Prior knowledge:
By secondary structure, the chain is an alpha/beta fold. The protein has eleven helices and 13 strands. The chain has helices spanning 3-11, 46-54, 73-81, 145-154, 168-173, 175-182, 192-199, 204-212, 253-268, 273-290, 304-318, and strands spanning 21-24, 28-34, 37-44, 61-68, 84-92, 98-104, 111-117, 137-140, 161-165, 187-191, 218-222, 228-232, 235-239. Strands 5-4-1-8-9-10-11-12-13 form a nine-stranded mixed β-sheet, sandwiched between helices. A four-stranded mixed β-sheet has the order 3-2-6-7. The mean pLDDT is 93. Adenosine monophosphate is lined by residues 26, 28, 30, 44-46, 100, 116, 142-143, 169, 251-255.
Amino acid sequence: MSLLETIQRSFQSSESETSSIVVVGTVAFDSIETPFGKAERIIGGTGAYISLVASYFTQNINLVSVVGGDFPKSHLKMLNDRGVNTEGVQIRENEKSFFWQGKYHLDMNTRDTLVTDLNVLATFDPVLPDGYKSGDFLMLGNLTPAIQISVIKRMKKRPKLIVMDTMNFWMKHTPKELAEVFTMVDVLVINDAEARELTHEYSLVKAAKKILQMGPSYLIIKKGEHGALLFHESNVFFAPALPLEEVFDPTGAGDSFAGGFIGYLAKTNDISYDNMKRAVIYGSAMASFCVEKFGTERLTELTEDDIEERVNDFVDLVQFDIALVD
Ligand code: AMP
């Protein structure tokens, strides 16, 4: 069976085999400016992007987060309509939601964070409803490491797989707690700049070796429009990013990658290294959709056919025949 057939067959596998995912992350207001336009106070946050994307793979998603009384109920309903359980999203009526504002440079690869108002997040103590505590997969979106730790500790049994995202902000401000989460997870997802900052190594291969000694058994290094690398023991797998004609807003691309990655693993219920390679392709495909419109817009209108077609594009992109000379 070809890689493409294996990928397609597993995407079409029956719903009953899929596992549950607990997603922890921010649910936020984002204000975004790119060279192509502006959007004010639209729905964003790592938890929102991850669960929205994962909902294309399984309908058993349990979100843990916090919002203020200013957060429109219609945004939460949009997540519910996509099959995301928001029972674990606390609503603090008299407080304000997490707010993030960012502006992208002309190359769209770099962005400046203009505002990060933690608001409700500053004192967030995650509460896991009973139905969440035996989740099969745990996805820790970029969030305070201390919160990531409490969620792991509050699960009744250790999930089959714990995946975490993080960012340079936590490397700088809470390095001790971050080091502790690393020892508790299976897969770490970060970008190339963060991997270099964490290890003080320019070579991503050297950086990966160091990071794999910090706790996780698998490491994914995202390289934006240059794809992603999956490291495990002495193995490396590379997934390209699709050269796209339209890139409007890269916000949430990293989270969409994470949502596609964990969603595919949960759907196929297979955490082998070979299946993780396929999950990296699905993550890359979902990230490629995310950037085509502002915020979460593109991620609310996809069909299974769109996703399969996009995955085919990835397979075509890297397929070539070569005759090896002895
Ligand atoms: P990404 O573009 O995938 O890195 O993620 C963008 C999302 O991260 C936005 O929707 C923001 O609301 C959210 N975000 C930005 N900064 C933080 C932070 N310090 N902690 C948690 N979430 C954040």
